[in-house]
Amino acid sequence: MKLSLSKPSKDFGPQSTLVVFVPSQGDSTKSKKPTPLAVSDLNSELTQLLRDAVGEKSFLGGEKETCFFRSCNVGGVKNLLAIGLGDKAKITPETLRVAGAVAFQTLNGGKVTKAHFHLASALYGQKDAALAAQALGEGLWLSDYKLEELKSGDKEKPKETPKFSEAIFVPGAKANSAALAKAVAAAEILGAVVNTCRRFGDLPANFMTPEILADETVKFAKGTKVKVTVWDKARIKKERMGGLLGVSQGSGHDPRFIILEYNGGGKSKKPIVFVGKGLTFDSGGISIKPSLQMDDMRYDMCGGANVIGTVIAIAQLGLKLNVVGLVPATENMPGPVATKPGDVLTFRNGKTVEVLNTDAEGRLILADALAYATELKPAAIIDAATLTGAIVMALGNTHTGVFTRNKKLSQQILDAAETSGELVWLMPIHDFHVSDMKGAFADLSNISSFKGAGSATAAAFLEQFVGSDIPWAHFDVAGTAWSIGSRFPYCPKQGASGIMIRTFVELAKDL
Ligand code: BES
Ligand code: ZN
Ligand code: ZN
Questions:
Q1: Cys bridge to 471: 74, 75, 406, 477, which one at CB 3.0-4.6 A?
Q2: Is the CB–ligand 1 distance for residue 386 below 6 Å?
Q3: Is residue 478 in contact with ligand 1, taking CB distance under 6 Å?
Q4: Cβ of 454 below 6 Å from ligand 1
Q5: Residue spans of beta strands (DSSP E) within 160-244
Q6: Residue 463 Cα, ligand 2 centroid: separation in angstroms?
Q7: Is 391's C-beta closer than 6 angstroms to any atom of ligand 1?
């Protein structure tokens, strides 16, 4: 997908496709007066075409409604696509993100390869035009993702179906072009990064081992100012990461510990550390999972992938921040020397844990990474993990569960998610949950001694590895990182969603 910003113009060329945005015309069509279309800067012939459609009630501007005037050859354009935005008073950047997805799908389905987007109509009434334009661009970019590389087919032969691949944003005469250009660039960066991370998530475990994840991270960071360091098994052992080692023991593939560093801020600025669960396949280990849909456990590295994406996006955006990404990567398999229920592991910070269920492995690999993150004396630690099935029960696939005891950080997270359009929900974490995780034969147990609140007790376990003076939040993305259905038209129904990268980038700006 190519996304660009042109100069203000009303001349698009006789072969062009123009996309305009129209708020809901609702009941106003009943009145005798001509319908007030909020399509400013549009020539009168095109405005009349839309007005006629509204008059005939074939298009009323409802959210996600479309009217495609194909080969209409009116007002100097070949095709006109009108996209509804719904109630004028309720149009947010998220409405435009959705509208971008609807535009992509309609144009792609209509075999249109290039279109001009009438920004004045899209941004009409928006408080922050740049943010709204960025959202529209993200909607387009995020819709342009599908994992096709594993299907055979003639790679030499050009695809018969043309794909929508070029969007040109045309600003209104009074627009702030510099701010819009920045917004377009940000949409491109975030869209491309999220799509790359979705690919990491979607690749099955034989195409995404810990070693491959590390290699792909190195490739991904090429050309950016991100330094990637990869620790192999010997180094992980030397670094006393007993949790990561213990989980990896049952697999024939060695673990990796991936470190990303970006220093865009001053030397004295404390880093923000993002930690992500990089479980490239979770069979459950000796506490093996049922076979039904076990293939879904390829997605158990989405937290890690999205942390990798966050650091790379921050670098590409050139934010003046110091950021570190830590991704412990391993498989969880029941091989001959696998960790067994009851085994006790010793972690980097010296704490001991009895592994009563080998399927509660995410917390074991994160524990070492959080202990390491603490040593970096960061401004904040943020982790993302497909950690518990319990969060799927609690919040389904709409909201990501957020756990933190830090009030200021809670508010910063809510604000960042509001800006990015991703949904989060604050969840409890309490001393009760900590005491539920005490061990009988070791400091801690990796499962709770009580039924229920499985996501909160998992979060309480993680907390034991974070320095008490460091603002920390845990994001349980088990319900939102993959297969979120048709909730968001710019996310694949099946497969990795790339969730939280956009929120993390926003959050980092505020930390
Ligand atoms: N990777 C799973 C969590 C998960 C479940 C992610 C469903 C996505 C969808 C995690 O490692 C796990 O197996 N957790 C166990 C913990 C339990 C044994 C305490 C769970 O949630 O069942
Ligand atoms: Zn598990
Ligand atoms: Zn897992």
A1: 406
A2: yes
A3: yes
A4: yes
A5: 166-170, 227-231
A6: 19
A7: no
In 3D space, the residue among 69, 70, 57, 2 whose CA is nearest the CA of residue 24 turns out to be 57
| 291 CA distance to ligand 1 middle (Å) | 14
Q: What is the three-class DSSP state of 13?
A: coil
Mean pLDDT of the chain: 95
Contacts of 130-133 with C-beta under 8 Å, sequence gap 24+, read 130/176, 130/179, 130/180, 130/182, 130/183, 131/93, 131/183, 131/419, 132/93, 132/96, 133/96, 133/169, 133/180, 133/183, 133/184, 133/187
Domains of the chain: 2-148+160-174 (3.40.220.10), 192-510 (3.40.630.10)
What type of residue is 356? L
Under the banding of pLDDT at 50, 70 and 90, the label for residue 43 is confident
Q: What is the DSSP letter of 289?
A: P
* CA distance linking residue 21 with residue 24, whole number of Å: 10
Distance 340 CA to ligand 2 centre (A): 14
Residues 337-388: tens digit of each pLDDT = 999 999 999 999 999 999 999 999 999 999 999 999 999 999 999 999 999 9
Measured between alpha carbons, how far is 299 from 205 in angstroms, rounded to an integer? 9
Q: pLDDT tens digits, residue range 97-139? A: 999 999 999 999 999 999 999 999 999 999 999 999 999 999 9
Residue 392: CB within 6 Å of ligand 1? yes
Q: Which of 359, 363, 499 to mutate to test the pocket of ligand 1 (most atoms within 8 A of CB)?
A: 359
CB under 8 Å to 442, separation ≥6 — which residues? 344, 352, 353, 354
CA pair distance 192, 50, nearest whole angstrom: 34
Task: Report the atom number in ligand 1 closest to the C-alpha of 284.
Answer: 13
Ligand 1 contacts CB of residue 331 (under 6 A): no
Tell me what percent of the chain is helix, strand and coil, each rounded to the nearest 5.
40, 20, 45
Residue 63 class from Cβ within 10 Å (0-12 exposed, 13-18 middle, 19+ buried)?
middle
Which atom of ligand 1 sits closest to the CA of residue 447?
19
The C-alpha atoms of residue 457 and residue 207 are separated, in whole angstroms, by 33
Look-up of token digits 């702030």: 176
The residue to which tokens 């009630």 are assigned: 57
29: confidence class by pLDDT, cuts 50, 70, 90: very low
pLDDT tens for 45-104 read 999 999 999 989 999 999 999 999 999 999 999 999 999 999 999 999 999 999 999 999
Catalytic residue among 240, 289, 340, 405: 289
Which residue, 494, 493, 488, is CA-closest to 502? 488
**How close is the Cα of 387 to the center of ligand 2, in Å?**
8
SS (H, E, C) 230-264: EECHHHHHHCCCHHHHHHHCCCCCCCEEEEEEEEC
Q: Which amino acid is at 147?
A: L
Residue 196 near residue 144 (C-beta atoms within 8 A): no
Is 405 tagged catalytic?
A: no
- Residue 114 pairs in a beta bridge with 166
Structure token pair of residue 343: 């085994």
